[in-house]
Amino acid sequence: MLEFNNVSKSFWTGSQRKVILEKVSFRVELGTSLGILAPNGTGKTTLINMMSGLEKPDEGTVLRTCKVSFPLGFMGGVVGRHSAVENSRYIARLYGLEPDYVEAFCRWLCNLGEYFEQPLGTYSQGMRARFSFALLLALDFDIYLIDEGMPSSTDVEFNRKAGEILRDRLQTTTVIIVSHQAQTLEKFARSAAVLIDGKLEMFDTLEEAKQLYDYQTQS
């Protein structure tokens, strides 16, 4: 379970305070994937980072009683001067997994060839995105966090293989995905929420959430 209790978060932009969340409470139970609709610039990435523990709330508490992933695309746990081989084996040890397995899985999924032995700092954005996604899927989490604003891969074969793995994972795990497009959420989410002006409204279905989202963003 992942639970927010009266959570508030805001930033000072230099001229005004931007409110991301204002006393928001909600719960995500395992087995019920959640899609969050939010316009661009409303704090989607901040919300996902708070779920993972990368950012702390100004007020309130975030409770995690299960294994929650780092956000898809997050590269803070890897070292740019080290190769994908070194990074994958290091992360495997951190999570108590077999380094040979994690390295082999990432090598197979990324299909980076000789670049897998090269420093991550030499990678293109797309290559880094492929490695980050592969590393995420190689690890074992109860809840996977996906931010549509994260870098994505344009490699068709990688997207096909990663998509198949993620669909299989959905049978036994939970996904939380934030996006400004309802179509993006349809692939993953059963329940949905709308984040606008610091408020998070929860709905049983994506269609209900989409109706409020369309009204709020078009009015």
Q: What is the arithmetic mean of pLDDT?
A: 89
Beta strand %: 25-35%
Number of helical segments with 4 or more residues: 7
Q: Describe the sheet with the most strands.
A: 6 strands, mixed
Quote the distance from N terminus to C terminus: 35 Å
The computed structural class is alpha/beta
Morphology call: globular
Widest sheet: strand ordering: 5-6-7-3-8-9
SSE sequence, one letter per element:
EEEHEEHHHEHEHEEH
Q: Write down the Rg.
A: 18 Å
Describe the structure.
It is a single chain. The model has no long low-confidence stretch (mean pLDDT 89). This protein is globular. The chain has helices spanning 44-52, 84-94, 99-110, 125-138, 156-169, 182-186, 206-218; strands spanning 2-12, 17-28, 34-37, 59-64, 68-71, 143-147, 174-179, 191-196, 199-203. The protein has seven helices and nine strands. Strands 5-6-7-3-8-9 form a six-stranded mixed sheet, sandwiched between helices. Strands 2-1-4 form a three-stranded antiparallel sheet, with helices on one face.
Short description:
The chain is of the alpha/beta class and 219 residues long. It has helices spanning 44-52, 84-94, 99-110, 125-138, 156-169, 182-186, 206-218, and strands spanning 2-12, 17-28, 34-37, 59-64, 68-71, 143-147, 174-179, 191-196, 199-203.
Please write out the topology:
Blueprint: E1 2-12, E2 17-28, E3 34-37, H1 44-52, E4 59-64, E5 68-71, H2 84-94, H3 99-110, H4 125-138, E6 143-147, H5 156-169, E7 174-179, H6 182-186, E8 191-196, E9 199-203, H7 206-218
Parallel strand pairs: 3-7, 3-8, 5-6, 6-7
Antiparallel strand pairs: 1-2, 1-4, 8-9
Helix pairs in contact: 2-3, 3-4, 4-5
